[in-house]
């Protein structure tokens, strides 16, 4: 039996996107939470919790995009053609957020509010259009003769817009629990107070998406609700409820690390549900990873370099988080 290169590359891309969602999600979430924390010193602390690592987090976005281009060029061409506008707007948001990181601390007091607004607006824009792109991906893309056959605004639907709002809620909770883990005192207390309502709002949006998706897509409903699939996949929604309950309990007892870890579990479960709904299609609803794959020679050549570089990315990522571990305070930064 030969090596299934498309499957290996699909796993690499899934892993890369998951790493991006987790690691860039909480620093986007910090920007989303900025309007709830008006104090300058508290905002300084919030940004300092991610200042040493935020740009490295986006490495995974680059890896995922490059891997999609090389391993599944058909998917790359169709998805980018269908989502050109939301992806460009997402990148514009990331640019504004990145510039705000660099200039906010150097700005004079009377100009700092401009960079705060850039940080907030960039974070909201990038997150919202990531959610829109995700919603459009779930809805699928028409493909004729291996080309995108839809319109430039097909992505603009009530479902995709709701997915954009849903991702804002998810990233806000991720950022909130990250700050619970990384801060102390009044700021941490404020995050504890925000985490509980955010968790309930996230439960509501997960429920709405989970109902909306199978109602709009019979093939997804068939995958989830026919036997024996129902018994295999039932643990996913049950684990979501159990994890949310544990998260609320952890917040209630003022835990420091558990809320963030449980939020990561929630993100992973949501990602798993998406995979169950769409696998093995890389261009929903009907183009599989094998149909969209590049020639084996190209995938094999790229795989050698990718398997060489991923351990280095994981290594410096782990080391950067290890070096900047611990709480961030108003007085002395990391300790």
TrEMBL record:
<dbReference type="GO" id="GO:0016682">
    <property type="term" value="F:oxidoreductase activity, acting on diphenols and related substances as donors, oxygen as acceptor"/>
</dbReference>
<dbReference type="GO" id="GO:0019646">
    <property type="term" value="P:aerobic electron transport chain"/>
</dbReference>
<keyword id="KW-1003">Cell membrane</keyword>
<dbReference type="GO" id="GO:0005886">
    <property type="term" value="C:plasma membrane"/>
</dbReference>
<feature type="transmembrane region" description="Helical">
    <location>
        <begin position="230"/>
        <end position="248"/>
    </location>
</feature>
<feature type="transmembrane region" description="Helical">
    <location>
        <begin position="300"/>
        <end position="324"/>
    </location>
</feature>
<feature type="transmembrane region" description="Helical">
    <location>
        <begin position="260"/>
        <end position="280"/>
    </location>
</feature>
<feature type="transmembrane region" description="Helical">
    <location>
        <begin position="158"/>
        <end position="181"/>
    </location>
</feature>
<feature type="transmembrane region" description="Helical">
    <location>
        <begin position="82"/>
        <end position="99"/>
    </location>
</feature>
<dbReference type="GO" id="GO:0070069">
    <property type="term" value="C:cytochrome complex"/>
</dbReference>
<dbReference type="Pfam" id="PF02322">
    <property type="entry name" value="Cyt_bd_oxida_II"/>
</dbReference>
<feature type="transmembrane region" description="Helical">
    <location>
        <begin position="119"/>
        <end position="138"/>
    </location>
</feature>
<dbReference type="GO" id="GO:0009055">
    <property type="term" value="F:electron transfer activity"/>
</dbReference>
<feature type="transmembrane region" description="Helical">
    <location>
        <begin position="6"/>
        <end position="37"/>
    </location>
</feature>
<comment type="similarity">
    <text>Belongs to the cytochrome ubiquinol oxidase subunit 2 family.</text>
</comment>
<keyword id="KW-0812">Transmembrane</keyword>
<keyword id="KW-1133">Transmembrane helix</keyword>
<dbReference type="InterPro" id="IPR003317">
    <property type="entry name" value="Cyt-d_oxidase_su2"/>
</dbReference>
<protein>
    <submittedName>
        <fullName>Cytochrome d ubiquinol oxidase subunit II</fullName>
    </submittedName>
</protein>
<feature type="transmembrane region" description="Helical">
    <location>
        <begin position="193"/>
        <end position="215"/>
    </location>
</feature>
<keyword id="KW-0472">Membrane</keyword>
């Amino acid at each position: 039996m030969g090596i299934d290169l498309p499957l290996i590359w699909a796993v690499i891309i899934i892993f890369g996107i998951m790493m991006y969602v987790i690691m860039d999600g909480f620093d986007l979430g910090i920007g989303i939470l900025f309007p709830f924390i008006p104090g300058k010193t508290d905002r300084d602390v919030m940004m300092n919790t991610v200042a040493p690592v935020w740009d490295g987090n986006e490495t995974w976005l680059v890896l995922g995009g490059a891997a999609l281009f090389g391993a599944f060029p058909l998917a790359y061409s169709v998805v980018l053609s269908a989502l050109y506008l939301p992806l460009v707007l997402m990148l514009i948001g990331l640019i504004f957020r990145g510039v705000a990181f660099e200039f906010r601390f150097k700005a004079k007091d009377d100009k700092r509010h401009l960079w705060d607004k850039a940080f907030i607006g960039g974070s909201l824009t990038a997150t919202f259009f990531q959610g829109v792109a995700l919603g459009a991906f779930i809805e699928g893309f028409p493909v004729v003769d291996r080309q995108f056959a839809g319109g430039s605004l097909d992505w603009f639907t009530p479902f995709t817009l709701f997915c954009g709002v849903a991702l804002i809620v998810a990233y806000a909770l991720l950022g909130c629990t990250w700050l619970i883990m990384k801060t102390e005192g009044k700021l941490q207390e404020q995050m504890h107070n925000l985490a509980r309502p955010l968790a309930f709002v996230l439960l509501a949006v997960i429920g709405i998406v989970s109902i909306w998706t199978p109602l709009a897509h019979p093939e997804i409903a068939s995958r989830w609700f026919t036997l024996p699939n129902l018994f295999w996949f039932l643990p996913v929604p049950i684990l979501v409820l159990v994890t949310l309950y544990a998260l609320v309990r952890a917040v209630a007892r003022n835990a420091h690390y558990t809320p963030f870890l449980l939020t990561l579990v929630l993100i992973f479960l949501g990602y798993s549900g998406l995979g169950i709904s769409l696998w093995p299609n890389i261009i929903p609803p009907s183009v599989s990873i094998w149909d969209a794959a590049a020639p084996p020679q190209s995938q094999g050549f790229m795989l050698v370099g990718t398997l060489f570089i991923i351990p280095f990315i994981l290594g410096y990522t782990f080391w950067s988080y290890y070096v900047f571990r611990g709480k961030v305070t108003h007085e002395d930064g990391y300790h």
